[in-house]
Amino acid sequence: MKIRIPSVAYHEAGHAVVAFVLGMDVELVSIETQGFPPGWLLRGGVLASFNLKGTENRDEAERAATAGLAGEQAERLWCSQKPWRLAKSTQHVRFSGDHTYVEEMLRPFIKDSADERRIIKRLKEAARSLLASHWSSVEALAAKLATRKVLNGREIKRLVSVKK
Which residue has the higher pLDDT, 141 or 52? Predict the structure, then answer.
């Protein structure tokens, strides 16, 4: 029996795979709010950690921002495979939470709006490239999310294969 995999599963799988590939500790990925702090308003999410001084270190902040942009890019890649999917895509509430997170990570390193656009464009391209290289892992994670709704770090490590 073929299972329908919603766009939100690809979106969250994209965040998780890129975070994992970039060396972050991915603890949880979900397409529901189970396991997240009370009051979080989201349709899913990823709990991943990186160097806590990340906002003081440009490289760490850019890694976190790249993972933050990966959900949007994964959903767009999923839609580009079959154009009719665009109509079924949630576009994850226009990616507003992701963009807020990315802006917060990059704020200390941005000079002006032109610089911000240039940096975000570069990081979106990096996320898209990583996703293309690891698309089979995104698909495996999205398929598992569609059936299980929540996966822990151990399950994510088993599903995400990192090719060096």
Answer: 141
The C-alpha atoms of residue 71 and residue 147 are separated, in whole angstroms, by 19
One-letter amino acid for residue 15 of the chain: H
* Rounded Cα gap, residues 108 and 70, in angstroms: 21
Q: Which domains, from first to last, does the chain contain?
A: 7-154 (1.20.58.760)
Residue with token string 């580009």: 80
Give 106's contacts (C-beta < 8 A, 6+ positions apart).
61, 62, 65, 116, 119, 120
Q: How far apart are CA 150 and CA 164, in angstroms?
A: 27
Q: Look at residue 115 and tell me whether its pLDDT is greater than 60.
A: yes
pTM: 0.82
> Residue 39: which region, alpha, beta or left (left: phi > 0; alpha: psi -120 to 50)?
left
CA distances 28 to 14, 48, 66, Å, are 13, 7, 18
Residues 6 or more apart from 121 whose CB is under 8 A from it? none
